[in-house]
Every structure is written in C-alpha cells, then in structure tokens.
C-alpha cells in the first residue's frame, strides 16, 4: 500500500513551499490564483488530504489553534491553557497543546508539525531568544503570538512585567530584614526568568545595597521541584554563617522542591529560612507551609493570547503586517504574602494581625494567605 502523500509531496509537485500549501488550504485569499490552481492540481493528482485536517479542508478555514508551552507538567501552563480554551471554545475552535520541555529543538519540531497541520495560528512561550522560526511562520501565513515572554521583540505578545515581579519578591525579603538571599534561577535562555533576576538585583540596588553582596545567584538546568530540592541541599551544606536566610525561586515548582528539602531537614520556615516563589499556582496556598509568591494572572494570560491571535486572524495580519507595531498586552504581577516568608502569617498568630481572624477551635486555623 503506498504511503499517504504528505504536504511536502504536494509542495514539491507544485513547486512551492510547505507554507504556501498551508495557505492554500487555510488562507487561500493570501495566494495568487495561478499558484493556488497549481497547488490544487497537485492535491488532486496526489489525492492529498492533510492528516487530521479533513474537516478544515472542507471548512476552508482552519478550525484549530496550536500552543507550545515550556512544560506541560508545570501547573502554571495548565492554568494558561485553560484560559486559551475558554477563549477558543465559544468560537468552535479546537486547541492543540504541545510541550517544548524548555528545549529549543523540541519547540522547533512542534512548530513544524503545527504548521503542517494547518492551524490558523500558534501561541508559544519561547524556549530561547531565537525568533527566526516565528518570523518564517508569520511570513508563510501562520500568525504567532508570544505568551509569557517576548515584550519588545516585534511579535504580538501577552506577558507579565517580570522585572517588576522579581523586584517585588526580593523587596519583600529585604523588608523582612534579610541581607543574604539566594536567587534560584533557570536556564539563561528562558527570558522571563532572566528578567526576574534583573528585578531582584534592582530591588537590592534600590535599597542602597550591593547586589553582589546580598544575592547568591544559583542557576539550575530546569525549572522543576527536583532542581529546587537539589539547590536547598546545597545551601544547607554551607556553614551556618554563610547560609542565606532567604531564598527567592523564579517559579513555584522550584520553591516547592526547596521547601520540601528544608522541612525534611528540620529547618524552620520562615524562622531559619524564608522562601518566596513565583506564579501562585493552585498548590501554593495549600502547602503545609503556605508559599509566599508572585501571582501571575495565568488564566488571563492564556485568554488574552488567544484573543489577540483571533484578532490577528480577523485583520488577516500575517506576513503583510510589516511596519505595523506588534500589539502587546502586559499584566502586572502581585506579591502574595504567606507563611513561608512572614512569621506573622502563622494561623496560630493571626490574632497579632487581626483579632477578628483569630482561629477558634470550631473554625480551624484562619487561612494564612
Ligand atoms: O516555565 C518557567 C516559568 O515561566 C513558569 O513557572 C512561569 O513562571 C513562566 O513564566
């Protein structure tokens, strides 16, 4: 049995690019009649039907959007994906989600597959600063919206001010009196994490202190709980007088791992070590020691990115939008103080904060966040 003809076979027979075939299938208005006829002849000759896109072919309009996130195992991206779904579902548009696992090579593979699938656009959280593939996609007619990083790149972007987020986190630790703070950061290719460290340094400088004196930057290869555990072990191995008294992790998974190690080692949090994360994923408030963190409007990030993409589709903005400034949506981060940094958030001490909230036996401890 002969193998099914691919979009590449059609492109080769018609003498055009894969992106042009994708445009003929999904955005025929963008292709000259002569080219469109050549491609349609090749499709007929090869009896080509894009896999999984037969309905799109009939519908003449792509009824799916692709999204490539950094890590599907991170609850942050689960919440962002929920926001995307909630914007697309009323339009009858399906969402195809893939994970780059913070690997540029894997992100690239996923982008190629999504373009071949003929999606009407792609939402992506970049795994590196290399934007060439996004430009190529846009040129071939597949709009790209950057999610969670990409402000100022010239691409439509929905993101949070991560420099401000890093400042809020470390300013909070400085306000509590910490003067030796570990900053656990991820791969230098993850822009949003780099920006958080920039913010951390600005907070120290704003306090008239030397960032190189106050901060101990601890890079990790991946932004997950295992790496957070590992860093906490290394910090605990330091002699007491060289050990930081506060840890700022650039995401909540790292902070979860660090907390797990500290508590298992019998370290008092926040008494001996304060911990601050970033994201405010659902588990952050449910931990045995609720996590102080920087809240990102995760659902809004996803919803707004999908909405921006549909706006681009509507305005047919794609390869011909050269010269128009890329639309950007920037959200503000918010500091959420909980027990992992602030002893006064201990439910047993709520009366110090607000007599009304003093825990009573029948109501159980007041929520500490
Ligand atoms: O994936 C790494 C981090 O980038 C996530 O936890 C979230 O903070 C995103 O901005």
UniProtKB/TrEMBL annotation:
Transmembrane segments: none annotated. Gene3D superfamilies: 3.40.50.2300, lambda repressor-like DNA-binding domains. Keywords: DNA-binding, Transcription, Transcription regulation. One of its GO terms (molecular function) is DNA-binding transcription factor activity. Residues 338-369 are annotated as: Disordered. The keyword Transcription applies. Residues 343-369 have a biased composition (Basic and acidic residues). Residues 5-59 form the HTH lacI-type domain. PANTHER family: HTH-TYPE TRANSCRIPTIONAL REGULATOR GALS (PTHR30146:SF109), LACI-RELATED TRANSCRIPTIONAL REPRESSOR (PTHR30146). This is LacI family transcriptional regulator. It comes from Salana multivorans.
